[in-house]
Specification:
CATH superfamily: TolB, C-terminal domain
CATH class: Mainly Beta
Number of domains: 1
CATH topology: Neuraminidase
Largest sheet: 5 strands, antiparallel
Radius of gyration: 19 Å
Strand content: 35-45%
Number of helices: 3
Number of strands: 23
Length: 316
């Protein structure tokens, strides 16, 4: 996604009364998290886990129940008249589905789901794949059996050479949940998953990785590390030869006392989307009832929202 696409996205979607226009929004994409398209993508609902199509012509994200036990993939697509009204993705809408990502060649996409496998109910999230038939057109979902386990799988992400990193709570890890990887083979199947190991994984919970396309760094969402600010936080680790460096905790205000997770790079690698349920600042004066309702139905009400920062912070 080019800077132009990001300008168009925010210009078309960012109808926030305190923002004068797209220039102000783009000018503030820096190390400080900013809401993405307030009132359109980041709303008073629970909104999470945004990702762009490879050509930047569509944005996908999740609409969730406040308890985060049911989530649906929705999307908006760009046209000469602007961004469309959000719609439910063709493959979603019945079962809890999330964490959409596109394969490096753009011909397939992957997501996690709690839908039945071979007609049998599942209580754990599994990785599924769909063929990309055209813009926002997909084939039938297929379960990726070789990545399955009796526990949850989360948040697949790819290097450009087809290595998938994902979170899993399966046995054999260093903590309750760890980061694992598997290689996409020429026949479309995956190699057996292997644990990425320390220092990326620890006795804490590492659930969501975002691997750079060239594999130089990985951003992980983890809970329970000693420097955590309270819940899931974002960390970055770099490849040092064949090893990984100790994950570095991204500083406040990127991380907060709430959940900070769901990291995704835009296709051009310039910006990092992530999800947070941080609350907005308390009001400077007592609110009347109408003002209170407005605040409770807006972003920053304690439900999850989509934020963006300049990805160059990951290089520092």
């Amino acid at each position: 996604m080019s800077a132009r696409w990001f300008v168009v996205l925010l210009a078309a979607c960012g109808a926030h009364p305190k923002v004068s226009g797209p220039t102000a929004l783009v000018a503030t994409v820096d190390d400080t998290p900013r809401l993405v398209a307030p009132g359109f993508i980041s709303t008073g609902d629970d909104d999470a886990h945004a990702t762009m199509s490879p050509d930047g012509s569509a944005i996908y994200w999740l609409k969730d129940t406040p308890s985060f036990d049911h989530f649906t993939v929705v999307y908006s697509e760009h046209s000469p008249t602007g961004w469309s009204k959000p719609r439910v993705a063709p493959f979603s809408g019945q079962w809890p589905d999330g964490d959409l990502v596109f394969a490096p060649d753009g011909k397939r996409a992957f997501f996690v789901s709690l839908r039945p496998v071979d007609g049998k109910p599942r209580t754990d999230s599994e990785i599924w794949t769909i063929d990309v038939l055209g813009k926002n057109q997909f084939g039938e979902p297929r379960h990726v059996a070789e990545l399955s386990s009796p526990a949850d799988e989360w948040f697949p992400t790819f290097t450009s050479d087809g290595t998938m990193y994902f979170g899993s709570c399966r046995e054999g890890g260093l903590g309750d949940c760890d980061i694992w990887r598997a290689t996409l083979r020429a026949d479309g199947t995956f190699s057996a998953p292997e644990n990425v190991g320390a220092p990326i994984n620890s006795a804490a919970n590492e659930i969501e990785p975002m691997i750079a396309p060239d594999g130089r760094f990985v951003v992980i969402a983890a809970k329970g590390r000693p420097d955590s600010l309270g819940s899931y936080d974002l960390y970055v680790s770099r490849r040092d030869g064949t090893a990984w460096t100790e994950p570095v905790h991204l500083p406040a205000p990127i991380n907060s006392a709430g959940w900070d997770f769901g990291p995704r790079l835009t296709p051009d690698g310039k910006w990092l989307f992530f999800t947070s349920n941080r609350s907005s600042a308390p009001p400077a004066r007592p609110l009347d009832f109408d003002e209170l309702e407005q605040k409770l139905r807006a972003p920053g009400n304690g439900l999850r929202d989509v934020y963006v920062i300049d990805a160059r912070v990951l290089e520092r």
